[in-house]
Amino acid sequence: MKPHDAPDNDQPSSQRPETDEDGLIRLQKLLAQSGVASRRKCEELMLDGLVEVDGEVVTRLGTKVDPRTAVVRVEGKRLPPISDKVYLVLNKPRGVVSTMSDPEGRRTLGDLVADRPERLFHVGRLDTDTEGLIILTNDGDFAQHLAHPSHEVDKTYVAEVDGEVHVRTVRRLLAGVELEDGPVTVSAARVLGGDPRREGSNRSIVELTIHEGRNRIVRRLLDHVGHPVRRLTRTQIGPVTLTRLRSGEMRELTVAELGELMDSAQL
To answer: Which of 205, 165, 168, 210 is nearest to 186 (CA)?
Structure first.
């Protein structure tokens, strides 16, 4: 972490700082062990008034906190509480069913995490023929809050679609589209590939960001504007991206990612 930067570490969220016999830990030690910065730099952050605990600025070095319950922020960014829960992100392959088991014997998310000891469940779902990011956890409150549409966590998709997607179609998407089960708000949309000016072009690559979670919403949305989806990938959920995660691979959420998602879910 650079001096005075907000926390932006990639430390796995499952790493547990060391506490005393009362379950407490000095705040600067908690920050350092969570990957915020060196112990000395964390002390400077506290003295500069950049660390909050439960909404109050803490500048006194040596202050002890309960890492399981304290809501800690560094320069406004959330540090997740200590927990025995696990928070994973998986790059779901195309053809895998978004359930933990399947009576028809199809390949499921449960098959991909069969070596994990926890009883995991998925946050939201992806269509069987859609690939990309899906979050798995054994934290029921987190899953329920994050999946609730009122919290409006942005999800980004990249779709290969039939036809030439023109600027007017992008504008139509951004203006909002009314489907049979209600309106859809698109936060961002752009064409990544396929050239509308090229004669004979028969496909386009489109990126969309929405916070909806309705059934097959992206496919229905693009079909509604005249561009049926050939292939669909979810590339981002809030701060969590698909970068360097191969199909079928998973990893733990980082401290920074989990903190931001907890804020989004109002936890």
So the answer is: 210
Six-digit token string for 55: 């909404």
Q: What does the pLDDT look like over 214-223, one tens digit per residue? A: 889 999 999 9
Using 50, 70 and 90 to split pLDDT, how confident is the model at 1? very low
Q: Which amino acid is at 50?
A: L
Q: Are 210 and 154 in contact (CB under 8 A)?
A: yes
Alpha-carbon distance 238 to 33, whole Å? 25
pLDDT digits (tens, 9 = 90+) for 126-168: 999 999 999 999 999 999 888 887 877 899 999 999 999 999 9
CA distance 147 to 78: 19
Which pairing describes strands 51-53 and 56-57: parallel, antiparallel, or unpaired? Answer: antiparallel
The residues assigned a catalytic role are 127
Share of the chain above pLDDT 90, in %: 70
Please list the residues that pair with 189 across neighbouring strands.
Answer: 208
Return d(Cα 221, Cα 218) in angstroms, integer: 5
What DSSP character marks residue 49? T
Per-residue pLDDT for 210 more than 60?
Answer: yes
Give helix 255-264 / helix 140-147 axis angle, nearest 10°.
60
Q: What is the DSSP letter of 108?
A: B
Q: What count of other Cβ atoms lies within 10 Å of the Cβ of residue 205?
A: 16
Q: Which residues contact 90 (CB under 8 A, 6 or more apart)?
A: 109, 112, 113, 133, 134, 135, 136, 248, 249, 250
